[in-house]
Amino acid sequence: MNDKERLYSIAVLGGGSWGIAFSVHLYSLGHKVSIWEFNREDAIELALRREHKTKLPGVMIPNEIEISNNLSEVIKDAEIIVIAIPSHTVRSVSRKLSELLSDNGPLIVNLSKGLEVESLKRMSEVIIEELDTGYKNKVMTLSGPSHAEEVSRRMPTTVAIAGQDLQNLSYVQNAFSSKYFRVYTNADLIGVELAGSLKNVIAIAAGICDGLGLGDNTKGALLTRGLAEMTRLGVAMGAARETFSGLAGIGDLVATCLSGHSRNRLFGEKIGKGENFDDALSEMIMVAEGIKTTKVAVRLADKYEVEMPIAKEVFNVLFGGKEPRVAVIDLMTREPKSEAYLYGK
Questions:
Q1: Sequence-separated (6 or more) residues with CB below 8 Å from residue 302
Q2: Could you say which of 55, 113, 121, 199 is catalytic?
Q3: How far apart are the first and last CA of the chain?
Q4: What is the C-alpha radius of gyration for the chain, rounded to an integer number of angstroms?
Q5: Closest CA to 97 of 59, 65, 134, 63
Q6: CB–CB of 91/85 below 8 Å?
Q7: 272-293 in b/e burial notation, b at 16+ Cβ within 10 A?
Q8: Can you tell me whether residue 106 is helix, strand or coil?
Q9: Which of 3, 53, 208, 320 might form a disulfide with 316, Cβ 3.0–4.6 angstroms?
Q10: Which CATH number fits domain 9-187: 3.40.630.30, 3.40.50.720, 3.10.20.30, 3.40.718.10?
Q11: Could you check whether 9-187 and 195-343 share the same CATH topology?
């Protein structure tokens, strides 16, 4: 059996929409799949009903997929561990993993799109820090335009898997690919993770535009200038510029800013329609990663001396009480510049 045909034992950490969708996808490829859900009651409910009626209604989890609240049992025989949990829980879960994994442990594939608020670190940095540097070449991040609602229904999806070991990337590429889920490899882990996180900030801005009733002209400009901001910061932090023109960059940016599935765009839309922060947040069924990422993006922009006017206006609206329409006017009336400034500071 060659690498492309090999089947793996895979543990998926996270019983939310993305964890379920990805588990169903992996199971369809013939892999042995287990799901870990951190909340005991939710794990029991999911195991009994085989469906998450609020986060991913209509998608049934095959009976062969084990669902448990026992982390050590779920990862016991895993050759690949997939992390599909909110970014703010990645460190604590990685710390639990460090107590259970051996030095010669499984490959780790991160699906979480976010940046740690306290440390400003990317998810792979957080995971490696907790698991030890021996996992440096084993930790990868998968990102791109991939809404759980569509992946779970086998709609054609294309993503990138990024990491520091090309052989491990190739293993995961072959293990995860199917006729409806295409995986490209990318050696730029910094760029793929930053792009997947920062696009959520721009998606909140896109939702604000929708809430204000602004048009296609506005959205087109927002995505273009938002991509410029993402790229500027990424390059300053050591990412490859080309990554932001790829699947993890513009691909995910377009999908997230335009989609009705996007929780970040939806949250922004609520704010644009006049809801206050707390009310809009309380109505969200799933985590909008862009809220926390906005705080990190502004701090990183200051640290690396990179201009990110859209991110800063989103921050002012969410956390400074600024009226969305005033933020739009302030963006439109900034000092005139050449578009050659696209990737400058």
A1: none
A2: 199
A3: 51
A4: 20
A5: 134
A6: no
A7: beebeeeebbeeeeebbbbbbb
A8: coil
A9: 320
A10: 3.40.50.720
A11: no
In the residue annotation, 199 being an active-site residue is answered as yes
Q: Kindly indicate whether the domain formed by 195-343 is annotated with CATH number 1.10.1040.10.
A: yes
Listed in sequence order, the DSSP H helices in 132-188 are 148-151, 166-176
Please state, in angstroms and as integers, the Cα–Cα distance from residue 91 to each residue in 100, 109, 116, 131, 215, following that order: 15, 14, 9, 10, 40
Query: Quick check: 105 and 138 in contact, CB under 8 A?
Result: yes
The rounded distance, in Å, linking the Cα atoms of 113 and 123 is 8
Confidence (pTM): 0.95
CA distance 296 to 41: 33
223 with 140: CB under 8 angstroms?
no
- What is the identity of the amino acid at 57? P
Domains of the chain, residue spans = 9-187, 195-343
- Residues sharing a CB contact under 8 Å with residue 126, sequence separation 6 or more, in sequence order: 90, 91, 94, 116, 119
pLDDT, tens digit only, all 345 positions of the chain: 355 678 999 999 999 999 999 999 999 999 999 999 999 999 999 999 999 998 999 999 999 999 999 999 999 999 999 999 999 999 999 999 999 998 789 999 999 999 999 999 999 999 999 998 789 999 999 999 999 999 999 999 999 999 999 999 999 999 999 999 999 999 999 999 999 999 999 999 999 999 999 999 999 999 999 999 999 999 999 999 999 999 999 999 999 999 988 999 999 999 999 999 988 988 877 778 999 999 999 999 999 999 999 999 999 999 999 999 999 999 999 999 888 655 554
